[in-house]
Amino acid sequence: MHAKTLLKTALFLILGSLGGWIMSHFPLPLPYMLGAMATSALAVAFLPRSFMAGYAVPEYVRMPFIACIGLLIGAQVHLELLTDWRPIAALLCVVTVFAPLAHFINYRMMRRYGGYDVPTAFFSAAPGGLIEAMSLGERAGAQIGLLTVQQFLRIILVVTLIPFAISLWVGHPVGSAAGMASLSQGEISPLWKIIAIGVLGYALGRALRIPAGQMTGPLILAGLLTATGWAELTLPAWLVILAQIVIGATLGLRFNGLSAAVLRRGVTLAIVSSIIMLALGAALALLIISLADVSGSAAWLSLAPGGVTEMALVALSLAADPALVTIAHVYRIALTVFIMSAGYARITRPPSPQA
Q1: Hey, is 161 helix, strand or coil?
Q2: What is the pLDDT of residues 66-108, one digit of tens each?
Q3: To 10 degrees, what angle do helices 322-347 and 59-74 make?
Q4: Which of 9, 79, 213, 229 is the one with CA 20 to 30 A from 37?
């Protein structure tokens, strides 16, 4: 079974690489990630169910590349980020407003227009914390198929829509193959150095038990080393591209096991929900800009309800303060998990008897 899993994983990565390579020849945002995602999703749709039964990308294949994204972000950290508290404070304050408001709007929409029961609607509405939402939702009796669709589509739609929306706004593709390759300009660090900092950072993330620790741990360590001048870190372009392919293929494979009926029911709600959250984020981004010296793209990306890793890639491609954006997303997930844990107990509490 282990050998079969590795062979299937190799097949999907080859398909993802092909899709990314084809997309890289067009002026599209994040071509390697979106190309890998598209080809993997198509493969899931057309391959026999027996071939896909019980398959999932092994975590030990995916995690090293997520750590690479953390290293890449950490290498962009500048000393000003560590000394100027105003942008961070402004972002965290506005995220504190965004997360519960987005959750409430989504919940009411899924109850009224989706006809979801309370646990399914509540945990499907969460603007972050995919794994935690699925775990807590299953424990609360949510319909796990619908919950899975809503959470996966939230990330996939936001990851797809954000780069295209910003590309239309600025008038040229963001995160293109050339743009991402520019992150690797300069003297490339030795592979042993990249691996050593990545492993130590991963251990740090596990020890701190922070959200997305597999990425934020390497980010923190690489950021400290870079900002203090102790070490410079530049990843090779091929590693940056490979990380995009692995992450994109993983997103596409999340359609595995989802029936057409469940997809049809969830996709409209997911589209409407994503557009509402992105519009809410755009409006609140104006507040962030008025409070601190933060670019519009960084402010909006900080409020986009996508995955931490995927939003970090978009921020990297835009050079839009990726470390600052990642801090906001880590906080968003931590806050959303707290809301899910405390909020569900509150809305399901029996009404107190009238005096």
Answers
A1: helix
A2: 888 888 878 777 766 667 788 889 999 999 999 999 999 999 9
A3: 130
A4: 213
